[in-house]
Amino acid sequence: MILLIDKPKGWTSHDVVAKVRNILHEKKVGHAGTLDPNATGLLVVGTGPDTKKLGEITKNTNKTYEGELILGKTSTTDDVDGEITVFNDQKIPTENEIKEVLKSFTGEIEQIPPAYSAIKIHGKKSYNLARKNKAVNLPPRKVSIFNITLDYYKYPKVKFTCEVSSGAYIRSLGRDIGAKLGTGAYLNELRRIKVGEFQVEKAITLQELQQTRSKELQQR
Question: Are 195 and 63 in contact (CB under 8 A)?
């Protein structure tokens, strides 16, 4: 079975898998396309034999996100969970400047993943090394930003929607947008609304899954 789950804020993708396993009493459960704990939205989950389909379903699949940046500050993790430092809170960009900078990121770009990511360096996850204050030098990777639009701007908040290729980090995109604006920025909120043809509107919450499962058991 393939499930579309609307992941709540504060949960890891692994937490969601564990909860689904518990609700359905299914040993084999997996997910495709990890979401950070601070992020919400669409998580594609597979159970039983369908876990084998997850890699194929999301392989080289475009993803769409809604994000919110805070300008003027930076974060060690590039998002709200890190140590936040004032970078340049004196410069207040115009809306046109924001639009031009966002536009400049469309197309194929080179992106350095966040140090606090699950990418492995010599067999060890990058975020584990970063947490131990060890130097993390991740090589840039080529990713594609198919489109990015400004949804709302009132300093210091910038809200945007973007469609990106597999492997793109929105935390890195936000960090680089802030650098190009000269203000610095970190990702305050993130919501994934689409994975390929799967849409978050068709996803269910864990609570809804629990309620559906309880009704099924009562009807037996």
Answer: yes
151 is catalytic: no
Widest pairwise Cα distance in the chain: 64
The pTM of this model reads 0.90
Spot the catalytic one: 6, 36, 78, 79.
36
The domain tally of the chain equals 2
Do 12 and 22 belong to one domain?
yes
Is 60 exceeded by the pLDDT of residue 162? Answer: yes
pLDDT one-digit tens code per residue, 168-207: 999 999 999 999 999 999 999 999 999 999 999 999 999 9
* Segments forming the whole domain that contains residue 134: 63-195
Quote the tokens at residue 45.
């989950």
> Which residue's structure tokens are 């004032």?
86
Cβ atoms 47, 28 nearer than 8 A:
yes
Which residues have C-beta within 8 Å of that of residue 206, sequence separation ≥ 6?
Answer: 5, 8, 16, 19, 20, 23
Q: Are 137 and 169 in contact (CB under 8 A)?
A: no
- Give yes or no: residues 183 and 117 share one domain: yes
